[in-house]
Design goal:
Blueprint lengths: L5 E2 L4 H9 L2 H11 L6 E3 L6 E3 L3 E2 L9 H16 L4 E3 L7 H12 L6 E6 L4 H15 L4 E7 L4 H13 L3 E7 L6 H11 L3 E5 L11 H8 L2 E5 L6 H5 L17 H10 L6 E2 L1 E2 L3 H9 L8 H12 L1
Parallel strand pairs: 1-12, 4-5, 5-6, 6-7, 7-8, 8-9, 9-10, 10-11
Antiparallel strand pairs: 2-3
Helix pairs in contact: 3-4, 3-11, 4-5, 7-8
């Protein structure tokens, strides 16, 4: 299925994990992270910095009920308030682009957010129509990042995106994918075209892109946005009923979500992670992963071993 950004498991798995963690065990990590600034990393082609935690909108922003919209609005507000900016969407995500545009306008955040979306169509004119629609729906005259999803008709769209970047209609362009079977094609495209951004799946459950794609991105000066940081919720299932290790507090981890996100962020090739949610509590939990110490290489190995155990 054409998934891109990861939606949090809006079922009981993460909720139960959060409730089940002992408050006393979390206190030292919470104190360590409190008041610390959000980590930011540079986009290699310009040096502009991005906060390392953003939000994805697949499923989570494809909504219409007032209660859901209220939660999504608060999620965007908190994202900006707590130092985040990246919001990733797509015309494939139902109403998500329209909801992002509506809520960002209500909150006065359109100019403050780093808006990213995608083109996923065959042919130049179809791609242009799709992208123009995204501009209207998200309420912006210049998109921060436009990505060719799944490399669909990439040879055609890359010409349009370079033209639009030169004309300052978009600030950056890139490619996005979510499946290891396409990594060979992704690698070839990166070498041939050197996009500004690569968006790819990467997590303790799907670590394959860290073998070749992320090192290549770092060598070529390509920013990396990570999707599916929780492997569609599978990581929460793996640790269900398990307490965080005591040593996780050494790098300000107070939840399993932060544990998974900090493992990703400790890879120096990663620019930003976009876990998807409209739940304000989950958003704040995620944002905490972007503060404080990150695990070193040895600790990352230990973290991975814990998930295999």
């Amino acid at each position: 299925m054409p998934t891109q950004s990861e939606a949090h498991p809006e079922n009981g798995s993460r909720r139960n994990l959060l409730k089940g963690l002992a408050a006393a065990a979390l206190l030292p990590a919470k104190i360590m992270a409190a008041g610390l600034p959000m980590i930011s990393r540079p986009i290699p082609v310009t040096g502009e910095t991005l906060p390392v935690i953003g939000v994805g909108t697949w499923q989570s922003f494809d909504i219409s009920a007032e209660a859901d919209l209220a939660n999504a609005r608060e999620t965007l507000r908190l994202l900006a308030e707590q130092g985040g900016s990246v919001v990733d969407s797509s015309p494939m995500y139902g109403q998500s682009e329209a909801v992002v545009g509506q809520l960002a306008a209500q909150l006065g955040l359109v100019a403050k957010l780093f808006l990213a979306t995608k083109v996923w169509s065959q042919g130049r004119e179809a791609g242009i129509r799709q992208m123009e629609a995204s501009f209207r729906l998200m309420g912006t005259r210049r998109m921060d990042l436009m990505q060719i999803h799944n490399l669909v008709d990439a040879a055609t769209h890359v010409r349009t995106l370079r033209e639009w970047q030169a004309a300052q209609r978009i600030r950056y362009w890139g490619i996005s994918h979510y499946h290891a079977s396409a990594y060979g094609d992704v690698e070839r495209f990166m070498k041939a075209e050197k996009p500004d951004f690569l968006q790819i799946n990467y997590s303790l459950g799907e670590a394959e892109s860290g073998v070749r794609l992320l090192p290549l991105a770092r060598d070529l000066g390509i920013a990396v946005i990570v999707n599916r940081p929780f492997a569609s919720g599978e990581l929460f299932n793996r640790v269900k009923g398990r307490a965080l290790p005591v040593w996780a507090a050494d790098f300000a981890v107070a939840s399993w979500a932060q544990f998974f996100l900090k493992w990703i962020l400790a890879d120096p090739a990663v620019t930003c992670v976009v876990p998807g949610t409209r739940n304000p509590k989950y958003l704040q939990d995620n944002m905490a992963a972007g503060r404080g110490r990150l695990p070193d290489a040895a600790v990352r190995v230990r973290m991975a071993a814990l998930l295999r155990g």
